[in-house]
Amino acid sequence: MKALIMGGGMSGLATAINLLDLGIDVSLVEADEIFGGRANSWRDEDGDMVDNALHVFFPYYVNLIQFFKKMGIYDNILWKNTEFYYAQPGGKNAVLKFIDLPAPLHGVYGYMHLLKDYRGIPRWKFLPACVPIGSAFLMSKEKINEYDKVSMASLVYRYGPLDGLKLMEPGVNGLTFTPSYAVSAKVMLNWVLKVMGSAQNARVGFANGGLGEIWVEKCVDYIKNKEGEASLKKEVTAINVEDGKVQNVVVNGEESLEADIYVSAMSPFALRKILPESAYSYEYFRDLWHFEYAPSLSLQIWFDKKLTDVDVTFFANDCIFNTFADLSNVLPHIFKGGSMFEMVLSPADHIRGLPDNVIFEIALEQIKSLFPAAKEASVRKYKVVRERQGVYRPYPGMESRRPFQRSPYDNLYLTGDFTQTSVSSGGMEAAIWTANKTSELIAADKLAKKVSLNVEFEPNEPLLKAMRPLTYGFLGLMSLVLARRIFKKR
Ligand SMILES: Cc1cc2nc3c(=O)[nH]c(=O)nc-3n(C[C@H](O)[C@H](O)[C@H](O)COP(=O)(O)OP(=O)(O)OC[C@H]3O[C@@H](n4cnc5c(N)ncnc54)[C@H](O)[C@@H]3O)c2cc1C
């Protein structure tokens, strides 16, 4: 039995590996000149490492961790402290610092620590925003799912001033490349539940080297060693369907490839352009047109001097960048000399049309305001990364449009971070989870084998688990006491 995988990003490569392990022959075609998709890096003309963008890992990426361990890649993740710095004008940082207290107490401590120095909003404005965010811990899964119909900002606005979200805005922007007024509240609440699940879950991991360097080659080698095929510069340009089955796909407009099973590991934007017209008689495929692109850019700046010694993630408000790190501190063995800032620029809708030098000048002015040492430093070079960018925009209602991995066509499966999963609205963990799910379905449908590849993340914090019954129990008890008093008076 032969499977053709279309797309060699993280999800496509992981699916190829899973299917080879199931004894299925695999051929993978990738349109780009490198494998790895968006979770990637390369060397520039000077030999300096350019990441597609700053990528961070979290301990709740349980399926990615399992996959990386199997592939011998896991040790390439460098775990840092549970601290997030907010860069503020004049170099006055505020720190969200989680310590090892039982959840959710670690979160209460963390935000109190942050509010000591955070100047973006008056402190009282933050408190009403905590009501809906904190109450996520008391909600059932079904209730959180309902919140896919409203935006994060409208949820918070019900309880207090919109400014209350300012603290969270860089995180929302960095994760979804979308402003909080346009992002599904369900998506953000789910993320809060994971990160706030325990102090350890909020730890951030960085690639110990170029992002692509740490994982791509190992995966491609594994495929080739198992006699799978993986080819670059092969763009699927048409998918031909007859009698409810894919018959073949066309590559680079000329070559026809046939297999028993076809897996699309491409983005929804690429897939919907090459499906046959007849596919759109299915709502399943029509839903692909609901996906909108949330653009991002990445900016790397090499300075000749150190601007900071912080070796974890920074957030910034009111800048064109939201999440960034000084890689000369994160990876001092690689980035020697002055600071090297790697920054995610998102939402990038309003800046992506600007020339590189204008984007750089705006960012540099903002960096000088946040890091006074930058006024004394020279820029050795900078790079605006525009290729392999963006995610889909998780606006309210999008969760229900994400396609299940088994398509209406008997031999076509869809994988990729945009396909249906409860783990997140996208990201590397979603890429691996969906690859595992696709492989589980193929094993069941085509090999009549039941395999379980995915594991579910469980925060396993006793206090957190007890919060819902304790709160409802307490409220129930209070109602009884109140009712007794009222009846006694009568
Ligand atoms: C700026 C930025 C920052 C990010 N930060 C993080 C982070 O911190 N943490 C995190 O977990 N995730 C992060 N992500 C998301 C992460 O990169 C993705 O979730 C992950 O790489 C998705 O993998 P994928 O295989 O689903 O898709 P992709 O990587 O997009 O792979 C799809 C592949 O299909 C190929 N393809 C497309 N069309 C065709 C065709 N016609 N024929 C053949 N091949 C085709 C593409 O070239 C590509 O290689 C970030 C993404 C960006 C852009």
Structure summary:
The protein has 490 residues and is α+β, with helices and mostly antiparallel strands. It is built from 15 helices and 22 strands. Helix 1 (10-21) packs parallel to helix 9 (211-225).
Would you give an account of this structure?
The chain is α+β, with helices and mostly antiparallel strands. Helix content is 35%, strand content 18%. It folds into three domains: 2-74 and 208-292 and 392-447, 3-Layer(bba) Sandwich (FAD/NAD(P)-binding domain); 81-202, no CATH class; 296-389, Alpha-Beta Complex (Polyamine Oxidase, Chain A, domain 2), CATH 3.90.660.20. It is built from 15 helices and 22 strands. The protein has a seven-stranded mixed β-sheet. Strands 10-2-1-14-22 form a five-stranded parallel β-sheet. A three-stranded antiparallel β-sheet has the order 5-9-6, with no helix packed on it. α1 packs parallel to α9 (211-225) and α1 runs parallel beside α14. 46% of the residues are buried. Flavin-adenine dinucleotide binds at residues 6-12, 29-32, 37-39, 53, 55-56, 235-236, 265-267, 270, 296, 298, 344, 389-391, 416-417, 426-429, 431.
Task: Work out the count of structural domains.
Answer: 3
Q: What is the third-level CATH name, the topology of the largest domain?
A: FAD/NAD(P)-binding domain
CATH class categorisation of the largest domain: Alpha Beta
Structural class: alpha+beta
Low-confidence stretches: none
- Strand order across the biggest sheet? 8-7-17-18-19-16-20
Q: What share of residues is helical?
A: 25-40%
Name the CATH superfamily assignment of the largest domain: FAD/NAD(P)-binding domain
Overall mean pLDDT: 94
Straight-line distance between termini: 79 Å
State the shape.
globular
CA-atom Rg in angstroms:
24 Å
Supply the number of helical segments.
15
Bound molecules: flavin-adenine dinucleotide
Number of strands: 22
